UniProtKB/TrEMBL annotation:
Signal peptide: none annotated. Residues 4-73 form the TACO1/YebC-like N-terminal domain. Belongs to the TACO1 family. One of its GO terms (cellular component) is cytosol. This is Probable transcriptional regulatory protein HZF10_03820. Transmembrane segments: none annotated.
Length: 240
């Protein structure tokens, strides 16, 4: 198996435990998708993808419909996607994806978390290059063979296809999202969920339990912030 498989295994069940937090993040995704491409999912591929994710997360249909209606209101603020970069204690690089309607608030909050936990908020480009920006799709296995599917999707950008207990996962570079989404839809393959991840090119092993706790303290503070969508880091994670 490749790096995407190991990355997924290491992160599984570690984050996003709170259902309410997941719903809040999906709601923001819906607003951004509607503002960008309109409220009709048939004509808005990004909105289709978010609605699939909402279904996968068991978000009630009425919540989704309410979020779409709210997003069409011209008075509803749009969210700007902002990337933050920095270092936790012990040389661990951290990359933070946010969606905010108040950048000054978000900057101040993120900076305070780094300061309180002996980390350092970096400048643009300081750690982003350490991560590969990828897209992923989860589909039901059905009668599909992952190895055959991988060969068939290579021309559309797929780099890694593997099976886990929840179905088949497809990983590809960030820019291949649209072509793979379109090909899966053309084949009538149901997309259960999809998204984007940043996979560290190299992870740092050998931290003591105390050092891991230092890093985890910062990660938890960041992840609790309502403006934060995803957090990635270069600390080697256990698959347990």
């Amino acid at each position: 198996m490749g790096r995407a498989f190991e990355f997924r295994k290491g992160r599984k069940m570690k984050r996003w435990a709170a259902m309410a937090k997941a719903f809040t993040r999906i709601g923001k995704d819906i607003v951004m998708a509607v503002k960008e491409g309109g409220p009709n999912p048939e004509a808005n591929a990004r909105l289709r993808a978010v609605m699939q994710n909402a279904k996968s997360a068991n978000m009630p249909k009425e919540n989704v419909e309410r979020a779409i209606k709210k997003a069409t209101d011209k008075d509803t603020a749009n969210y700007k996607e902002v990337l933050f970069e920095g270092y936790a204690p012990h040389g661990i690089a951290i990359l933070i994806e946010t969606a905010t309607d108040n950048n000054n608030r978000t900057v101040a909050n993120i900076r305070s978390y780094f300061n309180k936990c002996n980390g350092t908020l970096g400048t643009q480009g300081s750690v982003e290059f350490m991560f590969d920006h990828t897209c992923n799709f989860r589909i039901a296995k059905g009668n599909l063979d992952p190895e055959e599917l991988e060969l068939e999707l290579i021309d559309f950008g797929a780099e890694e296809v593997f099976e886990d207990e929840d179905g088949i996962l497809i990983y590809a570079p960030f820019g291949s999202f649209g072509s793979i989404q379109k090909e899966l839809e053309n084949r009538g393959i149901e997309i259960l969920s999809s998204g984007f991840e940043r996979i560290p090119q190299v992870t740092k092993p050998g931290l003591t339990p105390e050092q891991v706790a230092d890093v985890e303290k910062l990660l938890e503070k960041i992840e609790e912030d309502d403006d934060v969508m995803n957090v990635y880091h270069t600390m080697e994670e256990s698959a347990e």
